[in-house]
Write a structure and sequence with these properties.
Blueprint (H helix, E strand, L loop, with lengths): L1 H66 L1 H23 L12
Length: 103
């Protein structure tokens, strides 16, 4: 039993050094992982902010189009087309289905 105690007493400092080096290495890896995660998160946040800004700009353009008189003109044109097709139906104008354009 004395030999076992002597072996443990001699090898214990070496095992402690190995354990300390391993723990320091694990801490460095964890810090590197956190740094990488933080950089990726910041990059994603910047991309989302850019995309949100583009969508807001598009929304403003659409609001401008809707509130602009040009939208009203387009609505009036569509109303005229609708009323013309109703007039054609009431007047009995024959529709030539063969000559119609197909989508």
């Amino acid at each position: 039993m004395g030999e076992l105690t002597g072996l443990v007493a001699v090898s214990a400092p070496f095992l402690m050094v190995v354990a300390i080096v391993w723990m320091n290495h694990q801490q460095k890896l964890a810090k590197m992982g956190l740094k990488t995660t933080a950089e990726n998160t910041a990059e994603k946040a910047a991309q989302y902010a850019s995309q949100i800004q583009r969508l807001e700009d598009r929304g403003q353009v659409l609001e401008r189009i809707v509130t602009d008189k040009g939208y009203d003109v387009a609505t009036q044109i569509e109303a005229l087309r609708d009323s013309r097709s109703i007039d054609d139906q009431l007047n009995g104008t024959a529709m030539n289905l063969e000559s119609r354009e197909r989508a």
